[in-house]
Amino acid sequence: MIIEQHALWADDVTEEYPATYTAYLAEPVPARHDHLRPAVIICGGGSFTSISPHEQEPVAFEFLNRGFQAFVLNYVTSSTGDVSFPHPEADLAKMVACVRVNAKEWHVDPERVVVVGFSAGGFICASLAAQWRSGSFAALAGERLEYTRPDAVVLAYPVLDFRIIRAEQTRDPRIDLRVPKTGGKTGRDLLNDYFALVMGGEATDERMAEVCPTTHVSRDMPPTFVWGAADDRTCPIAQVYDFAAAMAREGVTHEVHVFDRGGHGLSVANANTRADNADEQRAVSAWVDLAFDFLVRQGIVEA
Questions:
Q1: Is 187 exposed, middle or buried (CB count within 10 Å of its CB: 0-12, 13-18, 19+)?
Q2: pLDDT above 60 for 30
Q3: Is the pTM of this model over 0.85?
Q4: Kindly report the CA angle at 281 between 159 and 242, in degrees rounded to 5?
Q5: Interval 140-154 mean pLDDT
Q6: Could you report the per-residue pLDDT of 241-260, keeping only the tens digit for each?
Q7: Considering only CA atoms, which of 115, 148, 36 is closest in space to residue 291?
Q8: Cβ proximity of 128 and 134 under 8 Å
Q9: Cβ partners under 8 Å of residue 217, min gap 6
Q10: Higher pLDDT, 238 or 178
Q11: Which of 214, 57, 60 is nearest to 122 (CA)?
Q12: What is the pLDDT confidence band of residue 11, given thresholds at 50, 70 and 90?
């Protein structure tokens, strides 16, 4: 196996373009030297402020072991640069195109490129899936439009609609109490500050709708697999239902799984990602096989 780390936009990372990626590449088997693998691009979560390691390398190895060449994208976050929409999405568009441009060198089939996103990373992947044609991502990435379209999408407990998240987070009246060590700000103030960071300005209902993947679902979307847990308080499951309904209306090939428990942030739910939540991990661990079965049916993976 070959593991390589690269700057995404140029030979070196710059302040304007801080994104990097790590490639996990299986070397060709001599007897099948010309065999091309599908590719997966992984976007871990982390609330747009960082990226969770347990949603990166363990996911790459899971896909690598199932026949993929794997790429972990370190998209821009608030700790590395301008995280406002659509900058992380432009990073993903650039990465999809990068895999296709380098497909021969990396032994990748350029017509089988999958993006997988967890939590905030799910928002980035869902945004590209829904707006690859209508949005500005390809232009920002300086790439041909068709080069930025994923061939399939897998979303794990994704952020899909900040309006629903805000409604859930502000339901508790304690949100209006002042938070210590914040200069007198309340929980509501802090939440609005966070949304403004991600939105790139005031988080009005109109702006939230503008960046919400659900409002941009169209028949141009690639096949999409989504899963979440009914008891997820970070990314309320109501988002998934609305997103699924939009895909159904537009005739998008999709599959949705909602587990009765599991909470948030469980990654691939194996020994490499498990913490003190074995019961929750067990409840959702089936998602990995379900997702791969879905990708088999879409012609991404060989059965």
A1: middle
A2: no
A3: yes
A4: 30
A5: 97
A6: 999 999 999 999 999 999 99
A7: 115
A8: no
A9: 130, 243, 246, 247, 249, 250, 252
A10: 238
A11: 214
A12: very high
The secondary structure element, H or E, covering residue 128 is: helix 120-131
Nearest to 237 by CA among 220, 261, 210, 221: 261
Contact 81, 51 (CB under 8 A): no
Q: What DSSP letter does each residue of 93-105 carry, written as one string?
A: HHHHHHHHHTTTT
Burial 75-97 (b: 16+ CB within 10 A, else e): bbbbebbebbbbbbbbbbbbbbb
In this structure, are residues 155 and 117 in contact, taking their beta carbons and an 8 Å threshold? yes
CA distances from 224 to 33, 37, 160, 169, 292 (A): 31, 20, 13, 27, 12
Tokens encoding 254: 């999709």
Burial of residue 7 (CB within 10 Å: 0-12, 13-18, 19+) is: middle
Residue type, position 17, single letter: Y
Specify the residue for token string 């096949």: 223
Q: What is the dihedral of CA 106, 110, 112, 113, to 10 degrees?
A: 70
pLDDT bucket at 280, cuts 50 / 70 / 90? confident
Tell me the pLDDT tens digit for each residue of 87-111. 999 999 999 999 999 999 999 999 9
Rounded to 10 degrees, the C-alpha dihedral 196/142/254/301 comes to -130
Band of the pLDDT at 131, cuts 50, 70, 90?
very high
**In DSSP terms, which residues pair with 41 in a beta bridge?**
71, 115
The residue among 98, 58, 107 whose CA lies nearest residue 75 is 98
Segment 191-199 mean pLDDT: 93
